[in-house]
Amino acid sequence: MQIDENRNPGIKAWSPEDRPREKMLAKGLSSLSDAELLSILIGTGTAKASAVELSRRILVSCDHQLHTLARLSVNDLTRVKGIGPAKAITIVAALELGRRRKETDRAEKPKIDGSSKAFQELKSEMMDLPHEEFWVLFLNRANRLIRKKKISEGGVSGTVADPKIIFKHALEDLASGMIVAHNHPSGNLTASTSDIELTRKIKEGARLLEMQLLDHLIISGEKYLSFADEGML
Protein backbone atom coordinates (compact mmCIF):
# COMPACT_ATOMS: atom_id res chain seq x y z
CA MET A 1 0.00 0.00 0.00
CA GLN A 2 1.41 3.34 -1.03
CA ILE A 3 1.24 6.20 1.47
CA ASP A 4 0.10 9.56 0.17
CA GLU A 5 2.74 11.89 1.58
CA ASN A 6 0.62 14.93 0.66
CA ARG A 7 -2.27 13.77 2.82
CA ASN A 8 -2.30 15.36 6.27
CA PRO A 9 -2.97 12.79 9.00
CA GLY A 10 -4.98 15.32 10.99
CA ILE A 11 -5.04 16.20 14.68
CA LYS A 12 -6.39 12.80 15.74
CA ALA A 13 -3.12 11.17 14.62
CA TRP A 14 -1.04 13.50 16.80
CA SER A 15 0.27 12.65 20.21
CA PRO A 16 -2.47 13.46 22.79
CA GLU A 17 -0.31 16.18 24.36
CA ASP A 18 -0.11 17.95 20.99
CA ARG A 19 -3.87 18.01 20.36
CA PRO A 20 -5.23 21.48 21.24
CA ARG A 21 -8.26 20.30 23.22
CA GLU A 22 -6.33 17.73 25.20
CA LYS A 23 -3.49 20.19 25.70
CA MET A 24 -5.91 22.80 27.05
CA LEU A 25 -7.40 20.34 29.54
CA ALA A 26 -3.98 19.13 30.66
CA LYS A 27 -2.02 22.39 30.73
CA GLY A 28 -4.57 25.23 30.64
CA LEU A 29 -5.53 27.85 28.07
CA SER A 30 -2.30 29.80 28.49
CA SER A 31 -0.31 26.87 27.08
CA LEU A 32 -2.00 27.14 23.68
CA SER A 33 -0.70 29.25 20.82
CA ASP A 34 -3.00 31.58 18.88
CA ALA A 35 -3.17 29.00 16.10
CA GLU A 36 -4.11 26.23 18.53
CA LEU A 37 -6.87 28.35 20.11
CA LEU A 38 -8.22 29.19 16.67
CA SER A 39 -8.10 25.52 15.66
CA ILE A 40 -10.47 24.65 18.52
CA LEU A 41 -13.02 27.00 16.96
CA ILE A 42 -12.44 25.54 13.50
CA GLY A 43 -12.87 22.02 14.85
CA THR A 44 -11.80 19.95 11.85
CA GLY A 45 -9.28 20.31 9.07
CA THR A 46 -9.32 19.13 5.46
CA ALA A 47 -7.80 16.12 3.72
CA LYS A 48 -4.52 17.97 3.29
CA ALA A 49 -4.41 20.35 6.26
CA SER A 50 -5.15 20.00 9.95
CA ALA A 51 -7.26 22.54 11.83
CA VAL A 52 -4.04 23.99 13.27
CA GLU A 53 -2.57 24.41 9.80
CA LEU A 54 -5.73 26.16 8.62
CA SER A 55 -5.48 28.43 11.65
CA ARG A 56 -1.90 29.28 10.74
CA ARG A 57 -3.03 30.23 7.25
CA ILE A 58 -5.64 32.58 8.72
CA LEU A 59 -3.09 34.18 11.03
CA VAL A 60 -0.61 34.63 8.17
CA SER A 61 -3.35 36.39 6.17
CA CYS A 62 -3.61 39.03 8.92
CA ASP A 63 0.10 39.22 9.77
CA HIS A 64 -0.51 37.38 13.07
CA GLN A 65 -2.32 40.47 14.40
CA LEU A 66 -5.38 39.52 16.45
CA HIS A 67 -6.91 42.99 16.15
CA THR A 68 -6.70 42.59 12.34
CA LEU A 69 -8.27 39.14 12.62
CA ALA A 70 -11.15 40.63 14.62
CA ARG A 71 -11.99 42.93 11.70
CA LEU A 72 -12.23 40.15 9.11
CA SER A 73 -15.66 39.32 7.72
CA VAL A 74 -17.05 35.92 6.80
CA ASN A 75 -16.20 36.66 3.16
CA ASP A 76 -12.62 37.61 4.10
CA LEU A 77 -12.11 34.35 5.99
CA THR A 78 -13.54 32.14 3.26
CA ARG A 79 -10.81 33.43 0.95
CA VAL A 80 -8.38 31.35 3.01
CA LYS A 81 -8.04 27.92 1.40
CA GLY A 82 -9.82 25.31 3.50
CA ILE A 83 -12.10 27.75 5.35
CA GLY A 84 -15.75 27.44 4.38
CA PRO A 85 -18.74 29.53 5.51
CA ALA A 86 -19.45 27.41 8.61
CA LYS A 87 -15.90 27.73 9.96
CA ALA A 88 -15.79 31.43 9.08
CA ILE A 89 -19.09 32.13 10.85
CA THR A 90 -17.87 30.34 14.00
CA ILE A 91 -14.70 32.44 14.08
CA VAL A 92 -16.55 35.73 13.49
CA ALA A 93 -19.12 34.89 16.18
CA ALA A 94 -16.43 34.03 18.74
CA LEU A 95 -14.55 37.26 18.04
CA GLU A 96 -17.79 39.24 18.36
CA LEU A 97 -18.40 37.70 21.79
CA GLY A 98 -14.90 38.78 22.80
CA ARG A 99 -15.58 42.31 21.55
CA ARG A 100 -18.86 42.50 23.48
CA ARG A 101 -17.18 41.22 26.63
CA LYS A 102 -14.55 43.95 26.27
CA GLU A 103 -17.26 46.59 25.88
CA THR A 104 -19.00 45.27 28.99
CA ASP A 105 -15.78 45.49 30.99
CA ARG A 106 -15.26 49.04 29.76
CA ALA A 107 -18.70 50.17 30.94
CA GLU A 108 -17.82 50.62 34.59
CA LYS A 109 -20.59 50.09 37.10
CA PRO A 110 -21.68 53.22 39.02
CA LYS A 111 -20.07 53.94 42.37
CA ILE A 112 -22.60 54.36 45.18
CA ASP A 113 -20.75 56.55 47.67
CA GLY A 114 -23.64 58.19 49.48
CA SER A 115 -27.38 58.28 50.04
CA SER A 116 -27.96 60.64 47.11
CA LYS A 117 -26.33 58.22 44.65
CA ALA A 118 -28.32 55.33 46.09
CA PHE A 119 -31.56 57.31 45.75
CA GLN A 120 -30.77 58.21 42.13
CA GLU A 121 -30.18 54.51 41.40
CA LEU A 122 -33.51 53.47 42.92
CA LYS A 123 -35.96 56.31 42.41
CA SER A 124 -37.12 55.29 38.94
CA GLU A 125 -38.23 51.93 40.35
CA MET A 126 -39.77 53.21 43.57
CA MET A 127 -40.83 56.84 43.59
CA ASP A 128 -44.35 56.52 42.09
CA LEU A 129 -45.42 53.10 43.34
CA PRO A 130 -48.94 52.82 44.88
CA HIS A 131 -47.73 49.90 47.04
CA GLU A 132 -44.61 49.12 49.08
CA GLU A 133 -41.60 47.34 47.65
CA PHE A 134 -38.26 46.38 49.20
CA TRP A 135 -35.10 46.64 47.11
CA VAL A 136 -31.39 46.03 47.71
CA LEU A 137 -28.31 47.46 46.01
CA PHE A 138 -25.49 44.89 46.15
CA LEU A 139 -22.04 46.47 46.03
CA ASN A 140 -18.46 45.29 45.61
CA ARG A 141 -15.55 46.24 47.85
CA ALA A 142 -15.11 49.53 45.96
CA ASN A 143 -18.82 50.36 46.51
CA ARG A 144 -19.56 49.86 42.82
CA LEU A 145 -22.94 48.43 41.98
CA ILE A 146 -23.03 44.71 41.23
CA ARG A 147 -26.79 44.67 40.71
CA LYS A 148 -30.06 45.89 42.20
CA LYS A 149 -32.73 43.41 43.20
CA LYS A 150 -36.37 43.65 44.27
CA ILE A 151 -36.77 41.44 47.32
CA SER A 152 -40.48 41.78 48.06
CA GLU A 153 -43.71 43.53 47.14
CA GLY A 154 -46.63 44.24 49.44
CA GLY A 155 -49.68 46.39 49.94
CA VAL A 156 -50.16 50.09 50.57
CA SER A 157 -49.12 49.88 54.20
CA GLY A 158 -46.22 47.42 54.23
CA THR A 159 -44.12 44.65 52.74
CA VAL A 160 -42.23 41.80 54.35
CA ALA A 161 -38.52 41.52 53.60
CA ASP A 162 -36.89 38.26 54.68
CA PRO A 163 -33.22 38.76 55.65
CA LYS A 164 -32.45 35.18 54.57
CA ILE A 165 -33.50 36.01 51.00
CA ILE A 166 -31.40 39.18 51.07
CA PHE A 167 -28.30 37.32 52.22
CA LYS A 168 -28.89 34.51 49.72
CA HIS A 169 -28.64 37.02 46.86
CA ALA A 170 -25.72 38.82 48.52
CA LEU A 171 -23.73 35.57 48.73
CA GLU A 172 -24.55 34.67 45.13
CA ASP A 173 -23.15 38.05 44.03
CA LEU A 174 -20.16 37.88 46.42
CA ALA A 175 -21.22 41.31 47.63
CA SER A 176 -19.11 43.18 50.16
CA GLY A 177 -21.74 45.76 50.98
CA MET A 178 -25.40 46.51 50.51
CA ILE A 179 -27.90 49.34 50.70
CA VAL A 180 -31.50 48.38 51.42
CA ALA A 181 -34.50 50.52 50.58
CA HIS A 182 -38.27 50.52 50.71
CA ASN A 183 -40.90 53.08 49.85
CA HIS A 184 -43.76 54.66 51.77
CA PRO A 185 -46.63 55.45 49.36
CA SER A 186 -48.29 57.52 52.10
CA GLY A 187 -45.57 60.17 51.88
CA ASN A 188 -44.54 59.65 55.51
CA LEU A 189 -40.74 59.44 55.77
CA THR A 190 -40.71 58.43 59.44
CA ALA A 191 -39.07 55.07 60.16
CA SER A 192 -41.40 52.68 61.96
CA THR A 193 -40.40 50.38 64.80
CA SER A 194 -40.44 47.44 62.37
CA ASP A 195 -38.22 49.38 59.92
CA ILE A 196 -35.67 49.97 62.68
CA GLU A 197 -35.80 46.35 63.86
CA LEU A 198 -35.36 44.98 60.33
CA THR A 199 -32.39 47.28 59.79
CA ARG A 200 -30.79 45.98 62.99
CA LYS A 201 -31.26 42.35 61.90
CA ILE A 202 -29.77 42.97 58.45
CA LYS A 203 -26.83 44.89 59.92
CA GLU A 204 -26.03 42.10 62.39
CA GLY A 205 -26.41 39.38 59.76
CA ALA A 206 -24.18 41.27 57.34
CA ARG A 207 -21.48 41.64 59.99
CA LEU A 208 -21.45 37.88 60.61
CA LEU A 209 -20.99 37.29 56.88
CA GLU A 210 -18.21 39.91 56.67
CA MET A 211 -20.44 42.26 54.70
CA GLN A 212 -21.51 45.76 55.53
CA LEU A 213 -24.95 47.36 55.59
CA LEU A 214 -24.16 50.86 54.35
CA ASP A 215 -27.61 52.44 54.48
CA HIS A 216 -31.36 51.96 54.58
CA LEU A 217 -33.43 54.39 52.55
CA ILE A 218 -37.11 55.13 52.95
CA ILE A 219 -38.32 56.64 49.69
CA SER A 220 -41.42 58.69 49.04
CA GLY A 221 -41.76 60.56 45.76
CA GLU A 222 -38.77 62.84 45.24
CA LYS A 223 -37.75 62.65 48.90
CA TYR A 224 -36.04 60.06 51.05
CA LEU A 225 -34.84 59.32 54.56
CA SER A 226 -31.34 57.90 54.96
CA PHE A 227 -30.62 55.90 58.12
CA ALA A 228 -26.90 56.54 57.62
CA ASP A 229 -27.31 60.32 57.22
CA GLU A 230 -29.55 60.44 60.30
CA GLY A 231 -27.10 58.41 62.44
CA MET A 232 -29.58 55.55 62.78
CA LEU A 233 -27.17 52.79 61.73
Which fold does the CATH topology of the largest domain refer to?
Cytidine Deaminase, domain 2
Strand content: 15-25%
Q: N- to C-terminal separation?
A: 86 Å
Mean pLDDT: 86
How many structural domains are formed by the residues?
A: 2
Rounded radius of gyration (Å): 28 Å
Give the structural class.
alpha+beta
CATH architecture group name of the largest domain: 3-Layer(aba) Sandwich
**Shape, please?**
elongated
Classified in CATH, the superfamily of the largest domain is Cytidine Deaminase, domain 2
Count of strand segments? 5
The helix/strand series, from N terminus to C terminus, equals HHHHHHHEEHEHEE
The major pleated sheet works out as: 5 strands, mixed
Helical content class: 40-55%
In quaternary terms, these chains amount to single chain
The level 1 CATH classification of the largest domain is Alpha Beta
Number of continuous helical runs = 9
Low-confidence stretches: 1-6
Strand arrangement within the widest β-sheet reads 2-1-3-4-5
Structural features, described:
The chain has a 5-stranded mixed sheet, with helices on both faces. Helix 2 crosses helix 3. The chain contains 9 helices and 5 strands. It has 2 domains: about 10-105, Orthogonal Bundle (DNA polymerase, domain 1), CATH 1.10.150; about 115-225, 3-Layer(aba) Sandwich (Cytidine Deaminase, domain 2). It has helices at about 20-25, 35-40, 50-60, 65-70, 75, 85-105, 115-125, 165-170, 195-210; strands spanning about 135-140, 145-155, 175-185, 210-220, 225. It is of the alpha+beta class and about 230 residues long.
